[in-house]
Amino acid sequence: MKNFKKIALVFCLLLSLNSYGQETKDAYANSFILESKFMYSEAIKSMNDIYSEKSYFMNVRLGWLYYLKKEYVTSISYYKKAVQLNPKATEPLWGIALPQIALEQWVDVENTYLTIVRLDPKNSLVNYRLGVNYYYKKNYVEALKYFDVSLTLYPSDYDAMNMTAWTNYFLGKKEEAKILFTRILLMYQTDASALEGLALCNK
Amino acid sequence: MEFLKKIVVAACLFFSSQSFAQDSKELQTAFSKSYAYEAKYQYEEAIKVMKDLYSEKSYPINIRLGWLNYINKNYGSAIVYYQKASSIMPSSAEALWAMLSPQIALEKWVDVEKTYFSILKLEPRNASALYKLGLIYYYRKNYTSAKKYFDVALNLYPLDYNTLLMSAWTNYFLGNLNEAKILFNRVLLLYQTDASALEGLSLIK
Question: Taking CA atoms, what residue in B is nearest to A90?
Answer without folding.
Answer: B156
